[in-house]
Specification:
Layout lengths: L4 E5 L7 H10 L1 H6 L2 E2 L15 H4 E3 L6 E3 L1 H14 L3 E5 L7 H4 L7 E9 L1 H15 L16 H11 L5 E6 L10 H9 L20 H10 L8 H10 L12 H21 L2 E2 L1 H9 L13 H14 L1 H11 L6 H20 L5 H15 L1
Parallel strand pairs: 1-5, 1-6, 2-5, 6-7, 7-8
Antiparallel strand pairs: 3-4
Length: about 375
């Protein structure tokens, strides 16, 4: 009697995980009809989630790290068995470093770890963007002679420690790299399901990178305490689709070095375990051209554009941001940026026919503080 399958999608981060999880979660019944059990999970207002992380990973006290709960995982396995399905599909980037814990179930189930392989030259900018968005990064992207270690190095270690047969690696790049021209269709190859019968996927990007203007605005804001409405700022910035959307923070010479190093690492990994569509990924990398280089700085015209959009879309948030920043402004540069924010906040209040005395007083107070 053949063993039931457990497919564990481990990401890694910044490889289209949110798109896949959003589609899986919305099409659980369709997957169920094809004998694939995908447990439900929550998503936020941006359609982003941690996948199945909270089903059986528990947060350790006084730390951000998680531990694998065998008791909770056994509960998931029980639900899987009751479903009558042949395949359990689990997805979370947090599972990447739980691979050793999953291996203890290899005797009972046919385990397979699915990981998308993204070139480091793409990954380094995407991860940096994410660090500004979610992790309070205030420093510009560091440029080094060699690329920093990445998930690909850890993945290669896992493959050496265990077995290449336990891993299914898939190339991640632009649409030309995927089987079927999109990542959802590409993943269907792992489920052995006729792609023509599947529900359509949403073409909208999920958890995409900030525009350059939004990135630098958020990087500047990260030095301040924004409190509970920081997520609202992120939601606003995430929705911006104008301005500099295609850009690079890597200078020309470093770009060529990173490109060569990325290709070498992909070729090395492919020797350890075959990467599906590796030829397409290498073709994509060899023909990759750097986007317009942008020197990291919050330019006045960019700040003005961002704050103008905020004033038009969410004036209440702009007002709250103005009041939150007021007591925290210290440097001359920050005070200049703050005047732009206050200018648009005053315009909004004028249009609403509300008193603006407190904002005039705030500017006067700030100017006096600068003159001391």
């Amino acid at each position: 009697m053949s063993k039931k399958k457990i497919l564990i999608h481990v990401g890694p981060p910044k490889t289209g995980t949110s798109v896949l999880q959003h589609w899986f979660n919305n099409n659980k019944d369709w997957l169920l009809s094809h004998s694939v059990y995908y447990p439900a999970h929550e998503v936020d207002s941006n359609n982003v989630s941690s996948g199945h992380k909270n089903l059986f990973l528990e947060r350790k006290p006084d730390t951000t790290r998680t531990s694998f709960s065998t008791i909770l995982f056994e509960k998931v396995l029980k639900e899987f068995k009751l479903s009558g399905c042949e395949t359990l599909l689990l997805s979370s980037e947090f599972f990447f470093y739980q691979i050793p814990q999953f291996f203890s179930y290899n005797d009972e189930f046919d385990l397979k770890f699915i990981a998308y392989v993204r070139a480091d030259i793409d990954l380094v900018e995407s991860l940096y963007n994410q660090s500004v968005k979610r992790n309070g990064q205030v420093k510009p992207l560091p440029i080094r002679a060699t690329l920093p270690s990445s998930y690909l190095d850890d993945l290669e270690t896992f493959i050496k420690d265990y077995s290449a047969d336990m891993f299914s690696l898939r190339a991640y790049g632009d649409d030309s790299v995927f089987s079927g021209q999109d990542i959802v269709t590409d993943f269907m190859c792992e489920l052995d399901i006729d792609v023509l019968s599947r529900p359509p996927s949403n073409s909208a990007k999920i958890n995409s990178s900030y525009s350059f203007e939004a990135l630098e605005f958020k990087r500047w804001l990260n030095q301040f305490s924004l409190g509970e409405f920081e997520s609202e700022i992120d939601f606003f910035l995430q929705a911006i689709s104008s301005g500099y959307m295609s850009y690079s923070l890597i200078p020309s010479e470093a770009f060529e070095q990173y490109k060569a190093q990325s290709i070498a690492k992909i070729e090395s990994l492919n020797q350890q375990a075959v990467i599906n569509n590796c030829d397409k990924l290498l073709h994509y990398l060899n023909n990759k051209v750097r986007a317009n280089y942008m020197h990291q700085e919050l330019y006045p015209q960019h700040l003005n554009r961002i704050v103008q959009q905020l004033a038009g879309s969410n004036p209440t948030l702009l007002n709250r941001l103005t009041m939150a920043l007021l007591p925290q402004i210290c440097s001359e540069r920050d005070s200049i940026h703050f005047q732009t924010i206050t200018h648009w906040n005053n315009l909004v209040n004028d249009s609403r026919s509300k008193p603006k005395n407190r904002f005039i007083k705030a500017l006067n107070w700030l100017n006096k503080r600068r003159s001391k």
